[in-house]
Every structure is written in structure tokens, then in C-alpha cells.
Amino acid sequence: MFIWALLIIGCLSVTVTAQDNKKRTDSTSKSNTAKKQEAKAAKKTKSSGFFSKKYYGSTVKQWLIALSIILGAIIVGRILYWFFTKIVRIFTDKTETKLDDIIIDKIEEPIVAAIVIGGFWWGISYLQFAIKTRNQIEGIIYLIIILDIAWLIVRTIDGLIEEYIVPIVEESESNLDDAILPIARRGFKVIVWVIAVVVGLNNAGYDVATVLAGLGIGGVALAIGARTTIMNIFGGLSVLINQPFKIGDRILISGHDGYVQEIGLSNTRLRTFIDDYLVTIPNKVFTDKEVVNISAASGVKGVFFLNISTNTVPEKITGLTKFLQQLSINHEHLEEDNKTTLQEFSDFSVMVRYVFYIKSTSPYWDIKTELGVKIMQYFRENNIIFAQRRVTFEPEEKTAPPPPDVDDDKDESGFGF
């Protein structure tokens, strides 16, 4: 029994010793494996240490990815712009309609801008920001996207108006639409941009109601300070409603004589009759002062003052007045109405005044020169002499020289005192 007990104890000790040896071997192998993994991790960390450095919350790797995406978007935008201008326009030029040309011309730049904005947004998404900062950046991007859409709409609609509406307005006989169309185009642009700003600010997280309330208070102060502008706007509305003149009319206002080039909401532009200057007149002037519409007359007035010598016989003066009257009646560019009369006498001349009216559709200066040449020819053919002012000078009478000065105070001694 004792022997069997020793055998059992020996077997158990051998078994325990084998298990202990196995555990030691396993623990040793595990420690070696862990050391190898730690070494690999340390080596990997050492190799990628530069790209793991953080700047402003993002690693160098994230910054490189973001900048690469943004740069790629800019390059794609440039390629797309080249594609529109060099490839697409070749096909649109071959079509009979101009609609596709207008659309391509107006949408290419906003679309390129949209691609760049999209690339910027995609690149920013790789960077790590605080929640508040990220919300602010996304709000600004939303605002820019809305403004880009508004830019696309304004460019496209304005191009269609320029191509299809403006020619119709120019061909119409009424001049009211010529004055209203520029105001309508500007008003449309203002409305689109205002809506875009309001929607963009709302998407960006701003309280639009508070902003509008602030604008309302500021608007009252602005209206007080800008009352001159408001008066000009009301003056422009008065001109458009009452129509004292229209585009193309020759008017006289505040000493300016010229043709109306443009009637705006706040001012009106004139092309001066003589100097060909472009004058901008505030519309409030038209409510404060009288406006003379020269074009409303039968024609553009012209005057010649003819000073004839007093030696001219009366029959020639009568013949001259009849010639001038028939000149207005028979000339195709002159109105028949004229005022020809013997104006006045002077000590050296007889003045004949000839008032004529050149048709508004005729070239004023050319016709006036032609009339002057014809009058000179008539003077030569009929021996009529223009008066010349003569000045005569009478010589002064010669006076005798004064007698020599005789000093009576000298005494006989000759000393004079």
C-alpha cells in the first residue's frame, strides 16, 4: 500500500510539474508575441508621426486630404469652363435658335462656382472642428450656395430679357415701355437678391425676424437722412405717370437744352443739344421747375438775323422776305410755318429776322448750314449787301503852344528874390 501511495504521489507530481512547465512555456510565448506587436506598433507610430500631428484640431493627413479636394474642385471647375467655352458653344452656334447660346453663356460661370463651393464643402468635412465652429462654417456655405443660385437666376432671366423683350420694346411706338423696362429689370434683380439674402441667412441659422426688425428701425433713420433720394424717386414716378416728355424728346430744364437719353427712377440723363455733353439731372428738379418740351413744337426752331445795308432799295427787302417764306414752304426738311419780318432799323442797317422750324427727324445742323448757303447765294444774285458798321475818327484840332514862363519877380540885380 505504501508503495502504491508513493507511485500515485509521483505520478501526480510529474503531472503537476508538466502542467507548470507548459504554463511557463505559454506565458513566455505570449510575452514574446506581445513584445513583437508592441515593437511593430512603435515602429508604425514612429513612421507616421508627422502625419499624426494636429494643427487646429485636425491632423496633417486630414489637412492634406481637405486641401487636395479643394484644389481638385478648382481644377475640375476650370476644365468644365473650358469645356463650355470650347466644346459646347461649337454645337450651340450651329443651332438656329439663340436660346441655347444664351443659357450656356449665362449658366457656365455660376455652375463652375457651384463646383468649387461643393469641393470646398467636401474638403471641410474631413477636418475636425468644434460643433459651434462647424455650424458657423456650414451656415456660411449655405449662404454662398443660395447667393450662387440667385446669381444664376438673375443672369439667365436678364439675358432672356435682353434678347427677346428689349427688341420688342424698341420696335414699339410707345415710349412708356422704354422708360419702364429698365426700372422693371432693376426691380427684378433687387427682389431676387433680397429673397436670396433672407433665405440664406435663415438657413445659416440667423434670426431673420430680428434682422428685419433692426433694418426697420434703421430704415426710418435712413429715410430721414435720404429724403433727397426719396424725393428723386417720387419725381421719377411723376415723370413716368404724367409724361411731360419721353425718351428722344428735346427739353429745356434748369438751363440745360438737350435730348432725353434715359428716364431713371432717381435721375434723368440728357444729351446736350450744342456741346453733346451727357447731363444727369435729379428727378426732383422736374417737380420744382418748369420743363419746356421743345419737341412738342411743330419743329426745331432756328433763327437767322440778316443785317442789310440801309442803301438797299425797299423792293429788294420785300423780295427777300418772300424768298425766305417760300424757302420754308418748298423745303422737304422744313415745316411750312415760318416767321419772316423786318425786325428793326438802326443807324447803319435794316434787320430782317427769319424764324424757321426744322423737322425733328431731320439733321438740324446740316439743314441750317444749307439754308445759310442758299441765303448767301440769293444775296449775291440780287446785289444785296450786308451792313457793315463803320467808325470814323476826326482829327483833333492843333492848339498853340503855351507862352514861355516869364518870371516877373526877379529884381534888377537878377537874383529873383
Global mean pLDDT: 76
With strands numbered from the N-terminus, the spatial order across the biggest sheet is: 6-5-4-3-7
Q: First CA to last CA: what distance?
A: 196 Å
Derived from helix and strand composition plus strand pairing, the structural class reads alpha+beta
Shape summary: elongated
Q: Could you give the count of β-strands?
A: 10
How large, in whole angstroms, is the Cα Rg? 49 Å
Main sheet?
A: 5 strands, antiparallel
How many helices? The count is 10
Question: What's the order of the H and E elements?
Answer: HEEHHHHHHEEEEHEEHEEH
Low-confidence stretches: 1-18, 410-417
Relative helix content: 55-70%
Strand % is: 5-15%
Give descriptors for this structure.
13% strand; 417 residues; disordered N terminus; 3-stranded antiparallel beta sheet; single chain
Describe this structure in words.
The protein is of the alpha+beta class and 417 residues long. It is 60% helix and 13% strand. It is built from 10 helices and 10 strands. It has helices at 2-47, 60-94, 99-124, 131-171, 176-203, 208-225, 227-242, 285-288, 314-330, 364-381; strands spanning 54-55, 58-59, 250-253, 256-263, 267-272, 278-282, 292-293, 300-309, 339-345, 349-358. The strands form 3 sheets. Strands 6-5-4-3-7 form a 5-stranded antiparallel beta sheet. Strand 1 and strand 2 (58-59) form a beta hairpin. The longest helix is centred in the N-terminal third of the chain and has 46 residues, at 2-47. The protein is elongated.
